[in-house]
Amino acid sequence: MKKKPRHHEQLKQRQIQDNNNNNGITSLSFAKPSPTPILIGKQTNHRTKLDALDSVITDLETSAKKGIRISEPEIFASLLETCYTLRAIDHGVRVHRLIPPYLLRDNLGVSSKLVRLYASCGHAEVAHEVFDRMSKRVSLSSAFAWNSLISGYAESGQHEDAMALYFQMAEEGVKPDRFTFPRVLKACGGIGSVQIGEAIHRDLVKEGFGDDVYVLNALVDMYAKCGDIVKGRNVFDLIPQRDYVSWNSMLTSYLRHGLLHEAMEIFRLMVRDGVEPDKVAVSSVLARLKHGRQLHGWAIRRGMECELSVANALIVLYSKRGELRQACFVFDQMVERDTVSWNAIISAHSRDSNGLRYFEEMRLGNARPDGITFVSVLSLCANKGMVEEGERLFSLMSKEYGVKPRMEHYACMVNLYGRAGMLEEAYSVIVQEMEFEAGGTVWGALLYACYIHGNADIGEVAGKRLFELEPDNEHNFELLMRIYGKAKRTEDVERVRQMMVDRGLET
Question: Which residue of 130, 188, 247, 506 sits 20 to 30 Å from the alpha carbon of 59, by its own alpha carbon?
């Protein structure tokens, strides 16, 4: 498979270098590098590793401009390794410019590291370009570059491309290793094909990785994401020495499928086997429990109540149960708070004005409001009839925080105006302000407002649109019939009822 990269002008522009200085340049002889990374050799004191990296690259760029050719692969390999460790893609592009084309083509170590850097930083297309120019990749048995590229595609959600590379590996005779299979299985889970997953399962057993915990953990996750939780559990039961990832994979798999009883069984087995559940496991369970006081006590006894993810899950747990005092207590005890923490406590107060107080505290703190935050405060304004405050917050959302309104935000605004009886304004939001087609939640909010305030004309428009968007939702038909009934439009009531009969929605 020859992958044609998509457009990536910005990165390519960074790679363009004036090669006019390359004519007649001399070769500089460097001393053979030691295993110590190149950055350590610099005598200048730098505040950060990134500063040191920048200094070294700048020195090399200066040398190149003077006509000095740098051709030692060890130098570039060390620099690319540092760029990868620091996730310094801009510095990596500068290093890429300095590498002679023949070295990238012929030196598998340097080119593989460059592929990994681009792929891990979200530039899989550029990584594929470098990969395609590697002349020795087929003849070498190493799967390093293949793994890096597969991982880059899988992490960016281009699962089909990742799978295609895996099958290309087999065609070109490159043997997969223990790092290949977790990456491929992640892509397979993204596609959701259990048939392909089973084929890869057979491949990894054939290659001798049937007992590898690292590979089997990925296999559990793949089966769960493909919808076969039973096979996932079968694989889990076969893992010889389970680690945290094994337990958490099985736990989150059950939770993802709504199997809370089975998830709690796994949690108990973890404790019984002496595996202390970590914050990931505890917060995952808490986020879905209806009754979690016992687990809260368990977390306190182990000193986990201060863990950010655990505390966030506890706030959600208690707010779902309507125990606002307990939710506030957890929030007030938190040493560290992030956007999720503030969103959880604001959402817990979505029916009282305290939510706005928390919102203002959030703005004064270090956390930045996001789209979820504004859904909560706009809903609060709608519930409390605070039209002017809702309008102010909606404007603030995009102008100050750069949050582009989504469907939920427009639904909140329609609900805000609709509850206040401002039906013309609510309708105007849909037909004049929205930059995309309104969905069922938006039209549904308008229809309900028309029912509350008895506006049959706008209600009729909303109802007709909902019949197209949600043809099987009988609630919309019933609501429009009630609106017609309030307006004494008996014939329209019967007409809508007949529509329900024709669609098989009324028994």
Answer: 130
Q: Do 503 and 472 touch, CB atoms closer than 8 A?
A: yes
Quote the pTM value.
Answer: 0.58
**Residues in contact with 206: Cβ distance below 8 Å, sequence separation at least 6, in sequence order:** none
- What's the CATH code of the domain at 485? 1.25.40
The chain-wide mean pLDDT, for the chain, equals: 84
Measured CA angle at 491 (ends 486, 495), to 5 deg? 105
68-69 and 26-27: which strand pairing? Answer: parallel
Judge whether 439 lies within some domain: yes
For CA atoms 362, 303, 260, 222, the dihedral sign is positive
Any idea of the CA torsion for 5, 7, 8, 10, to the nearest 10 degrees? 160
Q: Does residue 426 belong to any structural domain of this protein?
A: yes
Would you say residue 433 lies in a domain? yes
User: CA of 135: how far to CAs of 130, 139, 464, in Å?
Assistant: 10, 9, 62
pLDDT at 3: 46
**Residue the block writes with tokens 């008996």:** 490
**Phi then psi dihedrals of residue 69, to 5 deg:** -85, 125
Residue 38: DSSP 8-state: G
d(CA 505, CA 490): 20
Region 58-81 average pLDDT = 89
Give dist(CA 322, CA 317) in Å, integer: 9
Query: What tokens appear for 210 in the block?
Result: 């049937």
Per the rule left: phi > 0, alpha: psi between -120 and 50, beta: everything else, 192 is left
Q: Is 409 part of any domain? A: yes
Residue that the structure tokens 């005598």 belong to: 43
**Burial (Cβ within 10 Å: 0-12, 13-18, ≥19) of residue 415:** buried
Q: DSSP readout, 118-181?
A: HHHTT-HHHHHHHHHT-TTTTTS---HHHHHHHHHHHHTT-HHHHHHHHHHHHHTTPPP-TTHH
List Cβ neighbours of 62 (8 Å cut-off, separation of 6 or more). none
Structural domain range at position 465: 405-507
- Residue 97 to residues 36, 90, 461, Cα–Cα distance (Å): 24, 11, 60
Q: How many CB atoms lie within 10 A of CB 297?
A: 11
- In what helix (H) or strand (E) does residue 59 lie, and over which residues does it extend? helix 49-65
Number of domains in the chain: 1
| Cβ(470)–Cβ(479) below 8 Å | no
Instruction: Report residue 26: phi and psi, to 5°.
Output: -100, 160
Task: Kindly report, residue by residue over 120-129, the tens digit of the pLDDT.
Answer: 898 988 999 9
Task: Give the best-scoring range by mean pLDDT among 56-65, 273-282, 297-306.
Answer: 56-65
234: Cβ contacts below 8 Å, ≥ 6 apart: none
